[in-house]
């Protein structure tokens, strides 16, 4: 079985980003003579080695000392930590190099036909095997995915397939001129590209399998035909079949112990599943013609491959990204004999143009992605360039949250550590405004409307607030406080959503819940808001009215714009709009009435638009340093002044440019430096009354450490405040109480010893001391008071009683709600009636609100007065019943009262005195209220059964129900008349009797009774009711609850893990 997939690629794909930018940050000279050039660069994904080579037998293996995900490193200072020259190709030009990722081998070939396999030994690359067929040039060397087989293709048609050890598997002479070759991912097919533009497939034994039609050559547009030169050949430049990279054998050996524990999990492919969001299978073969076309093929359907045409571009190379989501294609200008202006085009796996990079005055001959997908190596002339690949992620910032999207394999939100993942299947796009965002996803292919897109409005925790459907693919999406605009090509949709709150200005122009789609004559670029502006491919901006979607203005602009950003302020009459223009210049325009005036044009040719990001290297567990704060000019100025300890100058600056953020910074700094006058001035400017009060407290403190601790606590830095407090002199004094108590104990000063134990919070030692003292000690009362303040009732009572202070012992029990203990003390000392005191205290606690009544109930429960507690529970239930609270809450009150009564009954059975007549009367019908609401809830569960009585002609049941309704006083006379008329119409056609149904015998007298009768008419036997289903129990086998003594059918109770009535779980047994 093959090793697990290498999972090093950053988490992004076509759906989670809008475009890709690249910039070169480092250039390394490979020490080639003038006019000599490199021909390739290849990046090892497992170990990050880069190999490059070219003229005069040059072959190097290098490694860059730069972590692509470390934002603190300066890329401009990156150096080569490995720079080894491999000698063996003499003076021939090295043309090809390929990595065996699994076994960490490097294979190279040159113009003389020499092939060398290199291996890593003691951190050095050494020569292992040589193959020299000095007859033709090697055009392709490829390893299969697991690195066990190698295929070598020569220009004259000779093909050799061998093993890792160098043994030949088969050799074949093909009757064609070859230009490229590639393995299929399963290692069972070889794909060859020929010099005349054909693609053929052979199986693993060398037999011809099929010919793949090249649709990019079969169809040709007019522009392409005019650009073609005379006698120009359509040659295959490169064939790349994407497959995931495996973890190398060396890496697997290092992970062997961990791998054994998680073998089952690790054997599953763990790479980023970038194609789960698409309705069709992923294109996984790419054929590139030298002049114009890149063709990623899809297995389904085979006759409709994706064809991308790059006008006036001569393609020189192409590489899949490590996750197979993108293709980078390098090329030069086709209309120039000696092109010195090179391009790199970034395409998605489905042929969509995602990004563009250009390199002046050099000819790119080789490109390769780095394993994370965030860097790229470029071979150009005699230099190796390293560039940053920066995806423009789809993300946004709400008021108090950051929202970003990433792809996960399985289905299953940061100024705080709280996150709110929201799973969105078939994600397409999202946009943000203030405290809400709009997320658009595609409908499932199996849904009734697969061509629709689902738009949902979400808040900062991912809760959906409103939704809408549209048929417009959301290539562009933007949102404001009232509506969202979805746009793609020549159509756009304006959706006026519904927010829980919006201001009065918006309320006057808001059209809640409406959405409409509109058409434009030409394709559009991203939409931004003034009213709504749409930029077109042909070079124009349309100004659309948000209320009805009508076009009110249009402005002509350049046709080469890439996107647009609007800087709109309702307080200004002239909003500004910016356009990054291809190739990478920027234009600023100003709206001046009916005119669009250019106010700025940047002449530099290296401008791109992206946001730096590290979150998506690990999107599910992002680090806090992924968020970086960039200060505005005013905050930076104040920060610099404060860092230079120029507090007065910072205050003067804030006075000239007042802002609450600046005064907050000054207040925090002044507090830290304990400059209380300056801090008070800043707090006054902020209107912070709490800050002024803090300064008053700080001025009264004599210890600097305590002041610092108070400041830290004010700034919510509690750990630092704790450490400062522990280091202060006051804390040091507290730390000495233990030693002081010991010394006072040895010296016999019991009073001071007790004082130290109390101040040092050492009540365990105080309890030991209390037991060692005699009963008549003068310190017993002091220790009893200390124990009472601490809530230690038993220890306090013991001290008071030993000192012959029963009144204080009784008072302590009452204060600590230990009423049973208080009753015992009162009885033993012939004191006043505790019941009267308890009743008086309970009456004081009871009030009109349920909360106060519940406090009194809890008081009686702690005192063991279960019957009084049950009375309060039933009073609460009666009060709630009049307020029409839900049945479930009413049942809870009645169940609580019944359980308390049940406890009274059990205590009475154990007590020889038994129950009084009044107590016996109260205990009757203990469970009636709980049963009533329990069976009412069961009846609601079976709501459709009685409602269907008329449909099954149970008119007797209907008649009883109608009579019951008419007898109620809750209806008005008009409603009662309507019910009478309904009864007359129904029962004039159908007599109010039930049809004959099967009767059952009475369990006592064998008389036949109706299965719904609660009592036998002959012997008056009452039948128990199942508390699980509400049906009668006529069997002798049933389940009995140990607590409430209610019954249920044996087969019904198996569905529960508790008693359905009293919810007892401790003694519950279903059998």
From TrEMBL:
Domain IFT121-like zinc finger: 1024-1064
Keywords, comma-separated and alphabetical: Cell projection, Cilium, Cilium biogenesis/degradation, Cytoplasm, Cytoskeleton, Repeat, WD repeat
Protein's name according to its UniProt entry: Uncharacterized protein
Listed GO CC annotations: intraciliary transport particle A; non-motile cilium
Ranges of compositional bias, category Basic and acidic residues: 283-295
Domain IFT121 second beta-propeller: residue ranges: 395-504
Domain IFT121-like TPR repeats: 947-993
Domain IFT121/TULP4 N-terminal: 24-239
Region (Disordered): 263-305
Subcellular location: Cytoplasm, Cytoskeleton, Cilium basal body
Domain IFT80/172/WDR35 TPR positions: 662-729
InterPro entries according to UniProt: Beta-prop_IFT121_2nd, Beta-prop_IFT121_TULP_N, Ift122/121, TPR_IFT121, TPR_IFT80_172_dom, TPR_WDR35, WD40/YVTN_repeat-like_dom_sf, WD40_repeat_dom_sf
Native source species: Caenorhabditis remanei (Caenorhabditis vulgaris)
GO biological process, one term: protein localization to cilium
Keyword Ribonucleoprotein: no
Pfam families per the UniProt record, alphabetical: Beta-prop_WDR35_2nd (PF23390), Beta-prop_WDR35_TULP_N (PF24797), TPR_IFT121 (PF25768), TPR_IFT80_172 (PF23387), TPR_WDR35 (PF25170), Zf_2nd_IFT121 (PF23145)
């Amino acid at each position: 079985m093959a090793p697990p997939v290498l999972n090093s690629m950053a988490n992004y794909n076509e759906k989670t980003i809008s475009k890709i930018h690249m910039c070169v940050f480092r250039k390394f000279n490979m020490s080639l003579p003038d006019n000599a050039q490199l021909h390739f660069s290849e990046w090892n994904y497992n170990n990050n080695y880069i190999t490059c080579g070219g003229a005069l037998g040059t072959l190097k293996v290098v490694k860059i000392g730069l972590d692509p995900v470390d934002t603190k490193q300066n890329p401009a200072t990156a150096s080569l930590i490995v720079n080894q020259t491999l000698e063996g190709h003499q003076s021939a030009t090295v043309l090809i190099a390929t990595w065996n990722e699994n076994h960490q081998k490097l294979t190279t070939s040159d113009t003389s036909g020499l092939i060398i396999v290199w291996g890593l030994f003691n951190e050095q690359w050494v020569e292992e095997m040589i193959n020299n067929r000095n007859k033709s040039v090697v055009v392709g060397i490829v390893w299969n995915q697991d690195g066990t087989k190698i295929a070598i293709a020569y220009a004259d048609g000779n093909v050799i397939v061998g093993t890792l050890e160098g043994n030949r598997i088969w050799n074949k002479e093909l009757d064609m001129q070859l230009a490229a070759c590639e393995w299929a991912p399963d290692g069972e097919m070889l794909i060859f590209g020929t010099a005349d533009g054909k693609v053929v497939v052979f199986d693993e034994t060398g037999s011809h399998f099929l010919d793949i039609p090249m649709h990019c050559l079969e169809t040709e547009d007019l522009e392409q035909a005019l650009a073609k030169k005379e006698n120009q050949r359509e040659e295959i430049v490169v064939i790349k079949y994407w497959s995931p990279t495996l973890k190398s054998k060396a890496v697997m050996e290092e992970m062997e112990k961990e791998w054994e524990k998680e073998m089952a999990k690790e054997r599953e492919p763990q790479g980023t599943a970038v194609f789960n969001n698409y309705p069709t299978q992923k294109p996984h073969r790419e054929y590139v013609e030298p002049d114009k076309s890149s063709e990623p093929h899809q297995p389904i359907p085979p006759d409709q491959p994706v064809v991308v045409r790059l006008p006036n571009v001569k393609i020189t190379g192409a590489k899949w990204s490590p996750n197979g989501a993108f293709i980078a294609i390098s090329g030069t200008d086709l209309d120039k004999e000696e092109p010195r202006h090179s391009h790199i085009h970034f395409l998605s796996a489905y042929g969509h143009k995602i990004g563009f990079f250009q390199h002046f005055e050099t000819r790119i001959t080789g490109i390769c992605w780095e394993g994370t997908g965030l860097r790229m190596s470029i071979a150009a002339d005699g230099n190796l360039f390293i560039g940053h690949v920066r995806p423009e992620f789809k993300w946004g910032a709400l008021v108090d949250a950051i929202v970003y999207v990433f792809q996960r394999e399985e289905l299953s939100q940061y100024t705080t550590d709280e996150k709110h993942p929201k799973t969105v299947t078939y994600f397409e796009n999202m946009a943000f405004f203030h405290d809400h965002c709009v997320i658009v996803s595609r409908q499932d292919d199996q849904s009734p409307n697969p061509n629709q897109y689902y738009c949902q409005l979400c808040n900062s925790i991912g809760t959906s607030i409103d939704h809408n459907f549209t048929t417009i693919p959301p290539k562009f999406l933007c949102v404001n406080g009232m509506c969202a605009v979805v746009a793609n090509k020549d159509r756009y949709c304006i959706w006026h959503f519904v927010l829980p709150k919006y201001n009065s200005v918006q309320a006057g122009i808001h059209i809640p819940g409406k959405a409409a789609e509109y058409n434009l004559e030409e394709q559009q670029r991203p939409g931004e808001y003034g009213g709504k502006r749409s930029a077109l491919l042909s070079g124009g901006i349309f100004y659309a009215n948000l209320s009805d979607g009508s076009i009110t203005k249009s402005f002509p602009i350049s046709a080469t714009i890439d996107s647009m950003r609007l800087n709109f302020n309702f307080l200004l009459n002239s909003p500004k709009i910016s356009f990054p223009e291809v190739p990478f210049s920027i234009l600023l325009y100003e709206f001046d009435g009916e005119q669009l005036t250019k106010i700025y044009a940047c002449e530099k040719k290296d401008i791109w638009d992206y946001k730096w990001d590290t979150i998506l290297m690990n999107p599910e567990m992002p680090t806090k340093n992924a968020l970086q704060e960039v200060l505005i000019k005013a905050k930076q100025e104040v920060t610099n002044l404060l860092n230079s300890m120029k507090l007065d100058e910072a205050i003067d600056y804030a006075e000239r440019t007042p802002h609450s953020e600046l005064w907050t910074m000054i207040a925090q700094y002044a507090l830290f430096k304990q400059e209380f006058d300056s801090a008070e001035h800043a707090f006054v400017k902020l209107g912070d009354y709490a800050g002024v009060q803090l300064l008053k407290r700080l001025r009264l403190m004599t210890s600097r450490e305590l002041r610092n601790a108070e400041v830290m606590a004010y700034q919510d830095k509690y750990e630092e405040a704790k450490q400062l407090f522990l280091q202060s002199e006051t804390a040091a004094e507290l730390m000495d109480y233990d030693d002081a108590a010991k010394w006072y104990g040895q010296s016999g000063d019991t009073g001071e010893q007790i004082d130290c134990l109390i101040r040092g919070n050492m009540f365990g030692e105080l309890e030991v001391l209390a037991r060692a003292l005699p009963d008549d000690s003068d310190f017993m009362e002091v220790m009893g008071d200390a124990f009472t303040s601490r809530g230690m009732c038993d220890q306090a009572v013991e001290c008071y009683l030993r000192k012959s202070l029963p009144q204080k012992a009784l008072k302590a029990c009452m204060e600590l709600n230990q009423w049973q203990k208080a009753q015992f003390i009162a009885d033993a000392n012939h004191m006043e009636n505790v019941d009267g005191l308890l009743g008086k205290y309970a009456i004081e606690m009871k009030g009109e609100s349920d909360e106060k009544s519940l406090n009194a109930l809890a008081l009686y429960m702690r005192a063991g007065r279960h019957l009084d507690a049950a009375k309060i529970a039933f009073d609460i239930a009666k009060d709630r019943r009049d307020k029409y609270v839900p049945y479930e809450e009413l049942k809870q009150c009645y169940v609580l009262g019944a359980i308390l009564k049940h406890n009274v009954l059990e205590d009475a059975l154990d007590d020889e005195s038994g129950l009084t007549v009044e107590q016996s009367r109260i205990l009757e019908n203990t469970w009636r209220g709980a049963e009533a609401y329990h069976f009412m809830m069961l009846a609601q569960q079976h709501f459709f059964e009685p409602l269907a009585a008329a449909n099954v002609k149970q008119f007797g049941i209907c008649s009883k129900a109608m009579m019951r309704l008419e007898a109620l006083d809750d209806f008005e006379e008009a409603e009662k008349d309507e019910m009478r008329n309904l009864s007359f119409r129904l029962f004039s056609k159908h007599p109010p009797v039930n049809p004959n149904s099967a009767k059952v015998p009475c369990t006592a007298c064998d008389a036949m009774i109706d299965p719904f009768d609660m009592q036998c008419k002959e012997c008056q036997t009452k039948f128990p009711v199942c508390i699980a289903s509400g049906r009668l129990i006529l069997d002798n086998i049933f389940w009995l609850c140990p607590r409430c003594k209610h019954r249920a059918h044996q087969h019904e109770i198996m569905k529960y893990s508790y008693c359905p009535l009293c919810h007892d779980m401790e003694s519950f047994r279903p059998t």
